[in-house]
Design goal:
By secondary structure, this protein is an alpha+beta fold. It is built from two helices and seven strands; from the N terminus they run ββαβββαββ.
Length: 123
């Protein structure tokens, strides 16, 4: 379809550019400096909140999403399995990991999309 010599894609691009200019002008006109309370670092740059860092697994969130209530698991029942398109399939228990592998301490930040984050070390 052609309107005034231009097809709909050209009109779509034109209106998109006009809308971008209007929204940008609105943002500049209404911009306010950040309040001091927003600059204190309650959230990470990713948007997550700090919670439970360096307090062990007991400080991790007990839910993994909104209404999730994971059942507790006995340590003896825990298994790590890697299969499918892998060179060497793996099926180990927590005890196997302690016996087969040299412990290595790793410091990591776990940053969840549910807005929770925690730092800690494991090893």
């Amino acid at each position: 379809m052609v309107v005034a010599g231009y097809n709909l894609l050209h009109w779509h691009i034109l209106f998109g550019l006009l809308l971008t200019a209007a929204v940008s002008a609105h943002m500049v006109a209404r911009a306010k400096p950040l309040a001091a309370r927003h600059q204190r670092g309650h959230r990470r740059f990713t948007g997550s909140r700090e919670g439970g860092s360096y307090r062990g697994n007991g400080a991790s969130p007990v839910v993994s999403w909104v209404a999730d209530r994971p059942a507790p698991m006995a340590v003896a029942d825990w298994r790590l399995q890697a299969g499918g398109a892998v060179r060497s399939p793996l099926d180990v228990t927590l005890a196997d990991i302690g016996e087969r592998y040299i412990p290595v301490e790793v410091e990591a930040i776990l940053d969840c999309t549910g807005a929770a984050g925690s730092s800690g070390s494991s090893g």
